[in-house]
Amino acid sequence: MAGVLAGAARATPLLEIGFGRVVHPSIIAEGVVATLGAEGEVARIFIRSLQPEGRVSRIADVTMTCGRLRLAQVIIECLEGSLEIPVLGERSGFDIAFDTGDRTGRVKIDSPQVGRVDLTVGTHAILTELYGLPLDRLPQVFAASSSWSPSGRMSGRVEYDFGPGRRLKASIRLDSGGFASADGLRAAEGVELAVDLVGRGQARTWNWDADIVWSAGEAYLDPFYLASGARLHLAARSEGDRVDLQRVSLNLDGVEEVKLSGELDLGAGMLRSGALALKGADLAVLGPSFILPAVAPAQQGLLTVEGTLDLVIGVADGTLSALEIGLDEVRIARSDGSAKVGPTGGAVAWYSDRAGELAVHVAGGRWRSLDFGAFDLRAKLDARSVELAAVRIPLLDGAVVFESVALVRGSRGWQGGGAAVVEPVSMPLLSEALGLPRMAGVLSASIPGLIVRPGEVVLDGALVISVFGGYLQASRLHLFEPFGRFSRLEADIEARAIDLTGLTETFSFGSISGLIDADVTGLELVQWRPQRFDASVRSSPGRYPRRISQRAVQNISALGGPGAALAIQRGVLGFFESFGYRSLAIGCRLENGVCTMTGIGGSEGVRENGSFVLVEGGGVPALNVIGYNRRIDWNEFLDRLQRVIASNAAPVVQ
Amino acid sequence: MTSLTKQILDRARVILVAMVAAFVGSAFAQGNLEINTPTIAALKQSMQQRHAALAPHYSSGAVGLAADGTIALRDASGVPMAQRGQVNALVAAENGDRAALYREIARANGHPEWEADVRATFARRWIDRAQPGWWVQGTGGWARK
Amino acid sequence: MTAYRQALLVAAAFVTLGTAGCVTINIYFPAAAAEKAADRIIDEVWQLREGRPASDERKNGEAQ
Asked: Is A46 within 8 Å of chain B by CB?
């Protein structure tokens, strides 16, 4: 330390002493110049750079001015002083007393803006007491914190024992605290936090014990919104940037126990490896705040979950390495009631570097108005693939069976395939479940080629319903975006020898005897409503009785709307209960909400005036039903059909 | 014999007309992409309804148009904390619809492999047609239009 | 009979031409058409008409 006598430049001080560098175990000061007896001042100390020990950034150009100065033997006292730190902006009240003999002392800083800081330096310890230190000044001292715009006031005490067994004890309270990243995706407001921290240092390592209680405020850590009420206990060991989280437990609303262990890299700001374990998590509480935002953000508000979850998440080298899930009494439902699954229970174990498995028991569920029964889902899991064991899902008195389904997750989504079978389901039960009039018959399906591609499921096979003495077969089944909101089904349907007597009676459409064949090609359902198809229904070939009741004739003409007309006079119609017919047919090509109708002979049978024959009479009395209105609004057509069926279900007295 | 010849010639004429029609049809297909499918209509309607909720966030800059044809929550600081999750859900739902739209357009035109091209085209057009003041993502990052 | 053969030949020629034509037409992504399609959809989704942007400030006000 070299004392330099400097000549007076402007104010002729009594004495000016420059200290190159002042070193204390906890603080390093550089460029210290003490000036005595300058104009209007008792004494002034200027410090070009003040740097606390360690890696914390330095404070530049500190000026301390003393109102009262006492130098007695080894005691230096600077009282009623003021402190000026340019980065902090304003002048603070300042008191200092220092004993150069045993290097102990006391510093008090007080300012309305900065709050009050008391610093007591002992022979082996420094005690810092904070009274409402504003955090929004932090970026001016620590440049690294500027991108987080911290706010709030901090109070408490930090005791640093720098003797041979280093010890740090802090008890800090944060009031109306917060921070915000520039993009607002990580932010907190109105936070009240109490931190109790004890650290013990040995050589380069520190052992930490901390209790953190978050009692007020809110935070958003994309995509999670968090409200206060959490309590954290932490035991860790640190060396430089590496923090080894030995034991972290969190008390969180809706979870019995949360434990975290792992290794943090503060330099890189990431969790190198670790495990998060949740026990007894209540999904009704955690679902909306944690699970849906992460797993199905677009479905928030559309799905409800309840039940209990145990979860272990493993991280290695900064990436997900293990996922162990335990489910108990878990129910998942769409809020609109259109589908639900559960209760389910079981376990899922997935690992990035070895085989895992899935074993879940589903006690039942409902899709639209169809209830399905209990089944066990078992699968072998690999890092990017799922191999499902045969699963039989009971449906009414039959079942849907998936066999050897294997899926691989690619960059664009899941793909793979397998086979599926629908074991016979009786139509009386199915029609009842779907809210349709009771129909006799059986539904079954054989899909040997089940192909899954991103956003697409192809069912290569056929679904067959034996009904009304004939059969109905759906093939070329294609399901697009099966889990999207606009799932679309495409299929071709072929029906042969359907007995009209049964059909018309079932749907209360008057009475028609005879058989029909039908072909629907390019059927397209969006959200289960037909959007496009080309359908033709016509009398089956062959010899069989063909009669049509007066009521059915009226209904068919009513379907045609006001433009439809009968080829015979109503008076004549009134005399007979039923008529013979040679052939009947109706066609509809639906496109853009409009059904283009045809009759017998399809589009070639349409006459020049645009009319088409729906029923061609035969025998006596002969009756033709002719349609004139070729283009019908599909929704209106459905309305008419519903009205016709409704009016016939309830007997009408004319 | 003559009637048979006539019949055959008639049939040939029909085939010829069909061929010409097919040519005109494919030429037409070159000029226009099929976007009149029920699924595309449903997606458009869904996105149009959501737009009323998204528009204020485009204007405020909370949500921007990303370079990959999606939208992104780029600056949530102006949105009340408790609502940031909802904006995030809105963004996720919109991106779900957009992905389905790009895929569906490629599919409706018989070329599922065009999906990436359709996405790139849309990405450019969304950004080109964004209103002044909206945030868009270019090669140099986010910028205000 | 020659007429029949001729007709068949003509038909066959057209079929080959037709298929050949169809195959080459759709190999490339129709960028201009896609742009037009995108614009039509964007018009509808953002409710832009005749290049007049819908004032979302107004809509915002209505929503609140």
From this structure: no
Closest residue by Cα to residue A252 from A292, A214, A203: A214
Residues of B in contact with C12 (CB under 8 A): none
CB of A12 within 8 A of CB of A22? no
In a mutational test of the C interface, the residue from B2, B13, B15, B86 whose CB has the highest number of chain C CBs within 10 Å is B15
State chain A's mean pLDDT as an integer. 86
Contact B89 A481 (CB under 8 A): no
Query: pLDDT at residue A204 above 50?
Result: yes
Q: What tens digit of pLDDT does each residue of A226-262 get? A: 889 889 999 999 998 899 999 999 988 888 889 999 9
Could you report the per-residue pLDDT of A103-120, keeping only the tens digit for each? 888 988 888 777 888 989
Give yes or no for a contact between A50 and A22, defined as CB atoms under 8 angstroms apart. no
In A113-185, where do the E strands start and end?
Answer: 115-121, 125-134, 151-161, 166-180
HEC string for A82-113: EEECHHHCCEEEEEEEEECCCCEEEEEEEECC
The residue of A176, A181, A183 whose CB has the most chain B CBs within 10 angstroms, and thus the best one to mutate to test that interface, is A183
Residue A444 CA to residue A605 CA, distance in Å, equals 36
Closest CA to A30 of A53, A14, A15, A46: A46
Residue of C nearest to B48 (CA): C45
B107 touches chain A (CB under 8 A): yes
Question: Residue A75 pairs with which residues in a beta bridge?
Answer: A72, A99
Residue B40: closest C-alpha in chain A: A486
- The verdict on whether omega for the bond into residue A454 sits within 30 degrees of 0, i.e. cis, is no
pLDDT for position A571: 53
Q: What is the mean pLDDT of residues B72-100?
A: 90
Amino acid in the structure at residue A282:
D
Among candidate residues A408, A471, A477, A425, the one with its CA nearest the CA of residue A449: A477
Say what the ipTM of the complex is. Answer: 0.76
Note whether A297 contacts B: Cβ–Cβ < 8 A.
Answer: yes
Determine the Cα–Cα distance for residues A372 and A370; give it in Å rounded to an integer: 6
Instruction: Work out the number of other CB atoms within 10 angstroms of the CB of residue A166.
Output: 16
pLDDT at A473 over 60: yes
Over residues A161-174, the pLDDT tens digits come to: 987 788 999 999 99
Of residues A169 and B11, more confidence is placed in A169
Preceding omega of A621 cis (within 30 degrees of 0): yes
> Which chains sit next to B, with 3 or more Cβ pairs under 8 A?
A, C
Residues, chain C, total?
Answer: 64
Chains in contact with A, where contact requires at least 3 CB pairs less than 8 Å apart: B
CB contact under 8 A, B44 and C45: yes
Q: Between B5 and A613, where is the model more confident? A: A613
Q: Coil, strand or helix: which one is A181?
A: coil
pLDDT tens string B18-72: 444 444 444 344 568 889 888 899 899 999 999 999 999 999 999 999 999 999 9
Cα angle A285-A291-A297, degrees, rounded to a multiple of 5:
120
Q: Is A542 helix (H, G, I), strand (E, B) or coil?
A: coil
CA-nearest residue of chain B to C15?
Answer: B19
pLDDT at residue number A417:
94
Domain holding C27, by residue range, is: 2-63
| Contact status, residue A36 vs residue A15, Cβ threshold 8 Å | yes
Give how far Cα A214 sits from Cα of A179, A191, A254, A282, Å.
Answer: 15, 7, 16, 20
Of all residues in chain B, the one with the smallest CA distance to C54 is B131
The answer to whether residue A298 neighbours chain B at the CB level (below 8 Å) is yes
- Cβ(A355)–Cβ(A331) below 8 Å: no
Asked if the model's pLDDT at residue C35 lies above 90, the reply is yes
Classify A435 in phi/psi space as left (phi over 0), alpha (psi -120 to 50) or beta.
left
